[in-house]
Every structure is written in C-alpha cells, then in structure tokens.
Write a structure and sequence with these properties.
mainly alpha, 2 domains, two-stranded antiparallel sheet, 15 helices, elongated
C-alpha cells in the first residue's frame, strides 16, 4: 500500500516538472506555477459564485429567525418589541418588506416561502406615519426615563455622604457635595414622580400601538402555531439539503473542466505534445484540488453528516464523538477509491508502457 502511494507520488511530481522526460528549466517552472495560482484562484471564485446560485435557507425563509426569536422570548413586552422592530427597521426610501424578501429570487434558483411573504405583508401594513410617530414618542420618553434614573444614581451617591456630614455637624461650606441632604431628597422624589408618570404614559402608548387592527392581525399571525411549524419544517429541510445542492452545482462547474483537461492530456500524450501534456496535467491537478476540498467540506456539514449525526444521536444519545470514529473508517475507504481511480485511468502502467513502446522509449 505505502509502496504504491510512493510510486504514485513519484510519478506525480515527475510528470508535473518534465516535458517529454526532460526537466523544466527554472523560468518555465516559475511561469507554470504562476499560471497554476491564477487559475486556482479563478476556480475557487467560480465555485463560490455558483454555490450561491441557489438561494440559501435564510433567503428562502427570511422570516424564520425573527419568528423563532419571538417564540422563544419570555418577556412581557415581546409583542411590543416585535412591532417596534418592524417599524424601526423600515425607512421611507426602503423597499417594502415583501419586495425586499423577493429580491433574493433575482438571478437565483429557488423561491421565497409564501408564508414569509405573508409575514412581510403584515409588516408592511403596520408601517405608516402614525405608528412611526408613536414609536418615536415612546423612545423619547424611555430616553428621558433613563436620564432621570442616571440622575437619581448620582444624587443617591451624594445623599449618603451629605447625611454623614449632617450627623457630624460639618459646615455646609466644607461639604464636597453640590446639594444638601434636604434638596437631594426633594430632587429624588421629584425625579421618581416624573419617572412614574413617564412609565405610565409609555405603557399607554404601547397599548395604543398594540391595539391597532394591523398590530393585532400581525400578532395573531405570529401566534399561529401551524404557520410557524410550516416555516420551521421548510427551513430545516432547506438547511439539510443546501450543502448537497451546493456540492451538486460545484461539481457541475468542475467536472466538465476535469473531463476536458483529462481528454486534452490523453490526446497530447498520444501525439507527443510535451508542453500541452504538461499544462493539461497541471490543469487537471488544479481542478481536482477544489473538488476534493469541497467533498471533504460536504462530509463535515452535508446530508451524510446530518444522517450519521441523527443515527448516532438516536442510538447513543450524547455520545456524538462516535461520528469521528465513523469518519476515521470512512475516509481511508474514500482515499483507497481515489488511488484506484488514478491507478486504472490516469497512471495505468500498461497504457503508459504501450505508449513508450510505440515511441521507442525506455519501458
């Protein structure tokens, strides 16, 4: 096994730096390496572009994350927060939420979830100047509350020291604090009254916002369990298959290049075109590198990984490290298959010997 690998590596490096069994000079080798790097960069760029040809699960289900966050929140103001978020993320010059969601379909394969488009319609109905003004007023009042609370904190920090100064009968002129204990107490009480009033006004405005027909319809839509289950199921399925779809498109991009490079290499070898054979060989290697990389990426996040993950989770519970054992056994098998492919189709000793006999070269 190891002797075979050493022989393949020796043949690989020999074929990568010789033309008709003559070694390349340094300048030619540098030029070949520069060409290799340039093509490799363009191959990875093309792979990245084609991998995004099909819309991603996030683009197909753009409402999923917001909806999921809403369901998992336990705060009493979560209805107001989701409405406020829908309003604060919208500007007059911006496209509607529906059109913004549908932009993902432009120039891509796949469709945006119809349920998410309905979700966008509800968000679009909420957006109007009246509700925008309510949100603006609420935020101004909340900012005022925060300012008063910070002022109270400063006053309280000084209040304790002024009390000590008063107990110690220290002269007012010698005090390090700006206000007396009596005035500090009055300021605290006044600020607390204002805070209480502002909180009451804020609560009234929130209720007013949530009592609008558009807000009620939006919240009821969010609380529809069947709707969310439909989105959640679709998102999970899309996430499961997306790595496989990406690998499929990337293979569609690479396999024709590999086939062309391999055909040119075989043709050049038969005709004795040394330079063409060398360049096509380098291209063949360059096209195989990203394919192998993408296959290994798929094995880590694709459908096979999810399938193994589900099996191990179902049988062994939390012993997910057992997936690594499966890969330790699986990867050598894949490597053996790759070696066999190269031995039979690329480095076939009989074909190479016959070619050398025909060209009157050393067998």
């Amino acid at each position: 096994m190891f002797a075979r690998i050493r022989r393949i590596l020796s043949q690989f490096f020999n074929q990568s730096r010789t033309i008709n069994n003559e070694p390349l000079n340094k300048v030619s080798l540098i030029v070949i390496i520069i060409i290799d790097i340039f093509i490799l960069i363009n191959v990875f760029t093309g792979l990245d572009d084609i991998s995004r040809w099909h819309i991603s699960p996030t683009e197909a289900y753009p409402c999923y994350s917001e909806w999921q966050n809403y369901r998992t929140k336990t705060t009493k103001d979560k209805d107001y927060e989701i409405v406020r978020f829908s309003l604060s993320s919208y500007t007059n010059n911006q496209l509607s939420f529906r059109r913004n969601y549908q932009q993902a379909e432009a120039g891509h394969l796949g469709k945006v979830s119809q349920t998410c488009l309905q979700y966008a319609d509800y968000k679009d109905k909420i957006n109007n100047p009246e509700k925008q003004q309510i949100i603006k007023t609420i935020e101004q009042k909340q900012a005022k509350i925060t300012s008063l609370q910070q002022a109270n904190g400063t006053i309280k920090s000084q209040y304790n020291s002024t009390l000590l100064e008063k107990i110690a009968a220290q002269n007012r002129e010698q005090s390090i604090n700006q206000v007396s204990a009596e005035k500090a107490k009055q300021a605290l009480e006044e600020n607390n009254r204002q805070i209480s009033t502002l909180k009451q006004e804020t609560s009234t405005l929130k209720n007013e916002l949530l009592s609008k027909p558009e807000s009620i319809s939006f919240i009821n839509f969010l609380k529809d369990e069947n709707r969310f289950q439909e989105v959640d199921k679709g998102y999970q399925q899309a996430s499961f298959w997306y790595p496989s779809i990406q690998l499929g498109f990337q293979s569609l991009f690479l396999l024709p290049l590999i086939f062309i490079a391999l055909s040119v290499h075989k043709f050049a070898q038969r005709r004795g075109y040394g330079l063409v054979s060398l360049i096509s060989w380098h291209l063949l290697v360059i096209f195989f590198i990203p394919l192998i990389v993408k296959i290994f990426e798929f094995l880590q996040v694709g459908a096979i990984f999810r399938f193994l993950f589900d099996i191990v989770s179902a049988i062994f519970g939390g012993l997910l490290f057992l997936i690594n054992y499966v890969y330790i056994l699986l990867i050598p098998v894949i490597g053996f298959g790759i070696i066999q492919f190269f031995q039979k189709f690329v480095f076939n000793a009989k074909v190479q010997a016959a070619s050398r006999v025909q060209k009157s070269r050393c067998v």
